Amino acid sequence: MGDTSQHGTAQVQHGPGAQGTRLRLLDAASELFAERGYERTTVRDIAARAGANQALLFRYFGSKKALFGEVMARGGQEQLRTTPAEQLFEVALRGMLAEGRSGGDRSLEVCLRSIGGSDEIAEALRGLGEEYAEVLATLSPSENGGLRADLALSWLLGIGLMRVVVGKEPLASADPDAVCGLVADALGHLLETPPKAGPAGG
Q1: Would you give the DSSP letter of residue 105?
Q2: How far apart (Å, rounded) are the C-alpha atoms in residues 201 and 116?
Q3: How far apart are the first and last CA of the chain?
Q4: 101: alpha, beta or left, given left = phi > 0 and alpha = psi -120 to 50?
Q5: What are phi and psi for residue 175, nearest 5 degrees?
Q6: How many CA atoms lie within 13 A of 108 on its CB side?
Q7: CB contact at 8 A, 196 and 202
Q8: Angstrom distance (rounded) from CA 199 to CA 94
Q9: Higher-scoring residue by pLDDT: 111, 141
Q10: Does residue 113 contact residue 148 with C-beta atoms inside 8 Å?
Q11: Do residues 80 and 131 lie in contact, with contact meaning Cβ atoms separated by under 8 Å?
């Protein structure tokens, strides 16, 4: 990958390893945005962690902001598409409680670390939050289900903020099953819907 000329990068882009390189860049960006937030993550850091040339990052994604948007879309929107509404809160919560472990979606962790960035980043985060809230609102039969869903989402992000960003004990080191067990019943009361066990039986 030492050839950074247009011809050289084009060869890599269309070669058999192009998709693998693109995925490595996405994975590296997801990890670094979750660890440091958008503003403190550089294109150089992402490329280095992915073992790729910076020129390839711009060729595949155009800009760091566009890459951030794709990271959020790949994680959060995939979770929204594949998770039953009644399990969404717990699945998202467990993803944050398992911060840094491989294989989990880290989009909400990325959100927490990136709050306070540029207006464009704030808009992307707001859009994802609205999608989560819309799904949670379907669980409430109340006339103010939208407000209840926003409160549930705020609670979810607050838990993540205190555990992931602030590191407040005993929450920071609490067992995920214990946290989910305590949260489930209260969430049911908030949404006025019976709590249901998530995929991990919390």
Answers
A1: -
A2: 35
A3: 46
A4: beta
A5: -65, 130
A6: 32
A7: no
A8: 10
A9: 141
A10: no
A11: yes
How far apart CA 107 and CA 72 sit, in angstroms, is 6
Q: What tokens were used for 148?
A: 């209840």
Q: Give which of 81, 84, 197, 56 is closest to 131, Cα–Cα.
A: 81
**Nearest one of 59, 38, 181 to 107, comparing CA atoms:** 38
Question: What's the Cα-to-Cα distance from 104 to each of 55, 67, 156, rounded to whole Å?
Answer: 28, 19, 16
Helix 107-114, helix 18-36: angle, nearest 10: 50
Structure tokens at 69: 């948007």
Per-range mean pLDDT, top range of 8-12, 179-183, 197-201: 179-183
User: In this structure, what token pair is assigned to residue 181?
Assistant: 């067990």
Q: What is the pLDDT of residue 8?
A: 37
**In whole angstroms, what is the distance from residue 69 CA to residue 50 CA?**
18
- Cα gap 84→55, rounded to integer Å: 39
* Residue whose entry in the numeric block shows the structure tokens 């997801």: 30
Residue 51 tokens, joined: 């073992």
**CA-CA distance, 46 to 32, in Å (whole number)?**
7
Which tokens go with 191? 């949404």
Please, what is the average pLDDT of the chain?
Answer: 81
67-125, pLDDT tens digit by residue? 988 888 787 778 888 999 999 999 989 888 886 554 556 777 777 777 766 676 777 77
